[in-house]
Amino acid sequence: MRYIVLFFFVCSTISTYAQELFVVTEPASNVPAGSLSVRVGQSLIKNDLKDNHIYGLSPEVTWGINKSLMVRASSYFDNAANGMNLAGASAYAKYRFYSVDDLQSHFRMAAFGRYSWNKSAIHQESIDLMGKNSGIEVGLVATQLIKKLALSSNVSYGRAFDNDGNDFPELYSKDAINYTFSAGRLMYPNRYKSYKQTNINAMVELVGQTILKNGRSYMDIVPAVQFIINSQARIDVAYQKQLYGSVYRPVKDGVFLKLEYTFFNVTK
Fold it and tell me: Which residues form the signal peptide (predicted)?
């Protein structure tokens, strides 16, 4: 009986969340309550400043405290200066405060916040609290699921601080508005027969930012493909490309590979 219950729980989780597991943005839905998710993100980004590529590594742990609240701890390593070094870390929390569920669709909204610490030298005007800047971010995200299609968008305010040992340049603005739009679709399977079936999701994400001091902005596009294996393992492959930008960013185009595994019912 326990395995039958687990089967229906996992199938319902996949069918409603599979398309919402975006690569570079976070939907309004949370990880399942009581679960622990371990993720390792890797990136190879072109560095126009030195005409080379920067390799980044970001281990993360996410805990679903309950159905409405999840928290995440992340760390950031890169080889921007003399081998692989710890560049920074961040703490993230998301609270889902609104949910309307139907048989084959749902709409959800959540509030989120992030605190980041970083010790890297600041070489760019854009504010990146996931590996480049110290600071805080607060925002709202809304996600709509309609059968196999998920649409998600968020808006947030970010403020940068001085990095540990590196002052924030006076020439740049510490304040920015971030905005994203993501669309994901379940491509395979057409019909569920087992929770062990591999899911294949295709998605595209738009990620933008406007600097409040001068109104400069940028917009990136991130097409991606995602595999969910045996209901617990996840593989993301994505490519990020700047569509336009007036913000100085020597690091903007690159590829991503993320590996994740979720342990269900860890804290129940």
Answer: 1-18
